[in-house]
Design goal:
homodimer, 340 residues, alpha+beta, Arc Repressor Mutant, subunit A, Beta-Lactamase, Enolase-like, domain 1, 12 helices, 44% helix, elongated, DNA-binding
Chain lengths: 340, 340
DNA sequence: TACTAGCACTCATAATTAACGAGTGCTAAT
DNA sequence: ATTAGCACTCGTTAATTATGAGTGCTAGTA
């Protein structure tokens, strides 16, 4: 159990260290207005805090820095989540509205806003389109041997793909195939189209059909349509300003990791569904991020669950500000409606 | 005028420096098999080369390093362009074929191959779709108030966009508008759609029409379709292995510059149209790339002019290998046909 | 004349040492 | 329970010294 004063000291150490990135000494602390004790008294308490594992010293004659356990305590006990500053939220809403025409834009804007607000790097992931259901398939001929397949999802997303046939295709064959696809696949989540069509085709014994090759080509093209995951990175260059990332050895793993879109997407998707979650230092289990903390949150848009947004900074990040800004932005997003 | 031996020495210095990134001394050179002169003799020639501005010394007691003028001489006189190794080119063709289904993929693959081959960073730009001409506009309804506009270009590119109308739209109004767009805009380069439609709409005096708002909405959506420039970056992390980019001060400008897609695209587009062009050090005029050299080339695909590809490395780059690999890849691309 | 051996000189780099000072832990006094 | 005082630690910085790779120049040789 921490005494009142120890709590004050812990808090002061972390606040100070967050700002300066330098170990904090007892004398520095005793000069603060909110700590009217002598440096010796503070030293005693610091020794206790160190015994409890909340702070540590880089070496004998340096001040103390918070340990991961210390940050954890700080975040759990001393950071208030969900304090909404109405004026600020309103301002964010206004900025978001400018981009409310397309969800892509909105995601970018949210990520950019959050990184501007905090000076950390942000990653935002849009809705997982693999879960959206097929609402409609259509086809539009370009010339005798080419055309465009279109798919529309229940969320109103559209994707297309050009198909090139081996030979000339009769319009009625195309029409029939499209009808078939609509009959059999509407309502199927995009992620399962390929599996689903296997079953259906097997049932139908299409092999006997005229123009089997062309039909199959059309079908394969349709189920092979890629829905790009809408991932957006904001404020990547902020990392260059962090004192703990001033050497190649620390910078390189971070940059290489963040540039790997695929992995980043999987990571975001694998995060537990929560409102605002803080992962401190090595807690995240990613080697490249062992000196980083991450604040993540799922967000909703116009009430509907939409995606995930994350903020990545050094372990010595400003948790209070970060958590608050994250709260603001997801609240602003919640209140924003897509224009459609 | 350079003597035979001075040429040999210049070449040896550059070859050596390219490999080691260390200033080259006279004794080191005299130990080479192809330079059977005493170090003193070499020193004399080095002094001459320095007077001519081809090499320089970082400080009195170091060896020599090539100057930008020296590299220029080397590239212009000692690097053979267009030496095609048929077997290697064939191998590249094979690898490219795997991705010949879509031009996007092909561009990625070409950039990746080139960066794997050279260990430098590559940037590839696809065709400038602003120059492609509109071949066709079409519309597909989703529900009463929404639908998808499609445009097809003369190169077979397809783009789409969702349109949301203010109110219910009669199918014949849509049909008419689409017909109008096709009549008036087919053949117009995508980059000029907006200007063009202004003129046409003015002529037509649509204002009197029923459902004017919805028609305009459809028209605006169509001409507002963005054609994403297909830019692809390969081997970005190669830069981390270059000894001249081991400090934040050199690394940061490079990474910040390369991450700015927009600027990168403009830069590539602004390059002079040539087959293989080498820009050495500060020649490129870009501050962030003042210590980089760039090998650029336009490339053709299946005979048609297609885009630009660039290779970026430190000024101390392996020009011979770089130029040769660039030659191979554009030759391989020239021989590749898109599957359509 | 063209080349080479030899030598004094230069200067970045690495290693060593010394001075500094921020910070600590402990003890004794209040 | 708190604080003043003091000896001690140890990372950082500056100053000093060696080291050696490389140079330019001169004088000698083929």
């Amino acid at each position: 159990m921490l005494t009142e004063r120890q709590l004050l000291i812990l808090r002061a150490i972390i606040d100070d260290y967050i700002q300066t990135a330098q170990p904090v000494g007892s004398r520095t602390l005793s000069k603060r207005d909110d700590l009217s004790f002598s440096s010796a008294t503070i030293r005693n308490d610091m020794a206790d805090l160190e015994d409890m594992g909340l702070i540590e010293k880089p070496h004998t004659s340096a001040g103390r820095i918070p340990s991961e356990v210390g940050y954890r305590y700080y975040v759990d006990h001393l950071v208030e989540k969900r304090i909404i500053d109405e004026r600020e939220t309103f301002r964010l809403e206004e900025r978001l509205k400018e981009s409310a025409k397309e969800s892509e834009l909105l995601i970018r804007q949210a990520a950019d806003l959050l990184s501007d607000l905090t000076n950390y790097t942000t990653v935002a992931l849009g809705p997982n389109s693999q879960m959206e259901k097929l609402a409609r398939v259509d086809f539009m001929p370009i010339d005798e041997r080419r055309g465009v397949v279109l798919i529309v999802t229940d969320q109103g997303h559209v994707e297309h793909r050009t198909v090139v046939f081996e030979s000339r295709v009769a319009p009625d064959i195309i029409e029939e195939t499209i009808r078939l696809l609509n009959d059999r696949l509407v309502g199927t989540p995009l992620g399962q189209l390929k599996i689903r069509i296997g079953e259906e085709v097997a049932k139908l014994q299409l092999a006997q059909r005229q123009q089997y090759d062309n039909m199959m080509q059309l079908i394969q093209s349709t189920v092979g349509i890629q829905t790009p995951s809408s991932l957006y990175l904001g404020g990547k260059k902020n990392i260059f300003n962090q004192p703990e990332f001033q050497t190649i050895d620390t910078l390189r793993p971070f940059l290489e990791w963040i540039d790997e879109q695929e992995r980043l997407t999987h990571w975001l998707e694998s995060l537990p569904n929560r409102e605002i979650y803080v992962s401190i230092g090595s807690e995240n289990g990613i080697v490249a991020l062992q000196n980083c903390s991450v604040i993540t949150s799922d967000y909703t848009l116009d009430g509907k669950t939409f995606g995930t947004i994350a903020m990545i900074g050094p372990t010595r990040m400003n948790y209070r500000h970060g958590v608050q800004m994250m709260g603001q932005i997801i609240e602003a997003l919640r209140r924003t409606k897509l224009e459609e």
